[in-house]
């Protein structure tokens, strides 16, 4: 039942992502979450380290679009200075925003990875469309809103089941 919440890859952070491995896999674009994936939920701007990471991503020929459940003000103030297209109020894991992001990237599901910190939104949404999914640890879980805290509770239930089935091991995270 919870298998659709399993990511293809688990990492500690976006900085552990191997761009060359993605390109070898045929990935040409990344749909990424914003809050607690790229920066902390209360962090208004990209850090210098993140800007460098985004530049390296582009150097590898990868396109990027932000898909966030947050509001337009939050997402646009972060994304526009970086020249990153975005979808706000995405209602992940619903398909609409992911399909919109694919059109923005001009890529297919098979050519696109979804990067995020939540199994219930990012991973489930990407898996439902057959995209390559990457789960990272949340940057600052203490700053999360009530909706995300509910999702985290549901994730813990799912993880217990996945561990019992032998599908989730803690040491897998890089």
Would you kindly provide a written description of the structure presented here, covering whatever features stand out?
With 174 residues, the chain is of the alpha/beta class. 38% of the residues lie in helices and 14% in strands. The chain contains six helices and six strands; from the N terminus they run βαβαβαβαβαβα. The protein has helices spanning 19-24, 48-59, 72-79, 95-105, 119-128, 146-164; strands spanning 9-11, 29-32, 63-67, 86-87, 112-116, 132-136. The chain has a six-stranded parallel beta sheet. The chain is globular, with a radius of gyration of 15 Å. The model has no long low-confidence stretch (mean pLDDT 92).
Question: C-alpha Rg, in Å?
Answer: 15 Å
Strand order of the largest sheet: 1-6-5-2-3-4
- Provide the succession of SSEs: EHEHEHEHEHEH
Distance between the termini: 25 Å
Low-confidence spans: pLDDT under 50, at least 5 residues? Answer: none
Return the structural class: alpha/beta
Helix percentage:
25-40%
Oligomer: single chain
Please outline the major beta sheet: 6 strands, parallel
């Amino acid at each position: 039942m919870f298998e659709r919440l399993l990511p293809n890859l688990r990492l500690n952070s976006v900085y552990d992502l191997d761009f060359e491995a993605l390109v070898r896999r045929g990935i040409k674009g990344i749909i990424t979450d914003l809050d607690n994936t790229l920066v902390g939920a209360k962090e208004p701007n990209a850090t210098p380290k993140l800007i460098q990471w985004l530049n390296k991503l582009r150097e590898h020929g990868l396109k990027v679009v932000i898909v966030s459940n947050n509001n337009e003000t939050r997402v646009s103030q972060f994304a526009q200075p970086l020249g990153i297209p975005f979808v706000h109020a995405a209602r992940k894991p619903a398909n609409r925003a992911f399909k919109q992001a694919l059109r923005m990237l001009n890529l297919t599901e098979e050519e696109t990875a979804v990067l995020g910190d939540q199994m219930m939104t990012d991973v489930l949404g990407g898996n439902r469309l057959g995209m390559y999914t990457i789960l990272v640890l949340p940057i600052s879980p203490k700053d999360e809103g009530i909706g995300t805290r509910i999702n985290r509770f549901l994730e813990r239930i799912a993880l217990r089941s996945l561990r019992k089935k032998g599908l989730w091991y803690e040491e897998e995270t890089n």
